[in-house]
Amino acid sequence: MLDKNGIAKRIAQEVKDGYYVNLGIGIPTLVANYVRDDIQVEFQSENGILGMGPFPTEANVDADLINAGKQTITARKGASFFDSAMSFGMIRGQHVDLTILGAMEVAQNGNIANWKIPGKMVKGMGGAMDLVGSAKNIIVAMMHTNRAGQSKLLKECSLPLTGVKCVTKIVTNLAVLEIVDGKFKLLERAPGINIEEIKKATEGDLLIPENVTEMKM
Amino acid sequence: MIIKKVNNVQEALTGVKDSMTFMLGGFGLCGIPENSINELVNLNVKDITCISNNAGVDDFGLGLLLKKKQIKKMISSYVGENAEFERQMLSGELEVDLVPQGTLAERCRAAQHGIPAFFTPAGYGTEVAEGKEVRDFNGKPHIMETAFHADFAFIKAWKGDEAGNLIFKGTARNFNPVMCGAAKITVVEVEELVKPGELDPNFVHVPGVFVQRIFEGKNYEKRIEQRTTKEA
């Protein structure tokens, strides 16, 4: 089974040379730590930077330079700053190649819910609806089950939706899956995890090909 | 040139009244108009509607107005950093309209540019789309969103000149440029106010035509929400 860093490490393999990538808050933020350094990749943060770099040293902290998670960051060589309308122009206009975000629930038709638990938690959707409404390539990074042990890969989402039929791939602590013909197609198993364990943790319909290899970490 | 300079925040906020709608720049606490917010607290205007990406934190930014119950309605995309906000919202004291962040920015930009409405795919098939016109473009459904209307926009820029030309710094730019000129009166506070001619026109982010009043702000705190660092 993978931990959060393991999920991020596996997703980093999906980041290809020449990609502009938007990383959501949480596990997705960790992906930047594992991207190969022999390829050209730029990270976009929707609050207005392309070319986001690592956290600053204490001496270089700048209150005017943060990411969408409100963390202090640095700008890489060749970075640029822009306003929020232009930032979402990049996203809506499909100039960003890959979006990686977290979710509370994903349905087998590609629907995603990640912004609201009615009556309990309402933090808002932030940029998630704009991202999932337009991005061509959306990877969800999440744990396979919630804290109560219930599956987060469902036939239908029970929480208010963030977007419809938009998720392409899901990487969890147990597996890599793809949305194909309204089902979860199992692509890879996490190290040490067997198919029965994945079946048990998945409420939605699973398509299980003959050979499901273990993730190469 | 046309001079937009006013002497202080009091003069800049002349005409602010109860029940008005305000736009406020900033993302989290980054690039918020600290001086104008503090003056709104002093003026104690009530029943206001605020259009702002976030709602501050409990003891800073828009959180100060929330604490004094000056805000009737918030229009935001993300409000997760503020416990008092969540309490007022869940108890029904505060009206909240949650808007996808890109749509929020574009509804400001539309107001700035004289565009009454536009279509976006963001929010299609979700609660956000309820009651809104849906149209297909290029085989994909989009929902109609309208431009915002506001009485005042409160903006924070890094440098500005007395003619209202503005330059922003880092990610403190965010919503600030798209709110300039999107309200009846745009009030800008800057860290450094210079004479016309001292800013290179090639590097002006927002031209002064979108600005009605500009002043040099004081005592910026620039609080950091998540101070994340690495070893030197």
Automatic annotation (TrEMBL), chain A:
Keyword match Transferase: yes
UniProt xrefs under Gene3D superfamilies: Glutaconate Coenzyme A-transferase
Pfam families: CoA_trans (PF01144)
Superkingdom field: Bacteria
Keyword Magnesium in record: no
Keywords: Transferase
Gene Ontology molecular functions: CoA-transferase activity
Protein family according to the UniProt entry: Belongs to the 3-oxoacid CoA-transferase subunit B family.
Descriptive protein name: CoA transferase subunit B
Automatic annotation (TrEMBL), chain B:
Record-linked InterPro entries: 3-oxoacid_CoA-transf_A (IPR012792), CoA_trans_fam_I (IPR004165), NagB/RpiA_transferase-like (IPR037171)
Alphabetized Pfam families for the sequence: CoA_trans
GO molecular function: succinyl-CoA:3-oxo-acid CoA-transferase activity
Coiled coil: none
Entry keyword annotation includes Transcription regulation: no
Sorted UniProt keywords: Transferase
Keyword set includes Transferase: yes
NCBIfam families according to UniProt: pcaI_scoA_fam
Protein name: CoA transferase subunit A
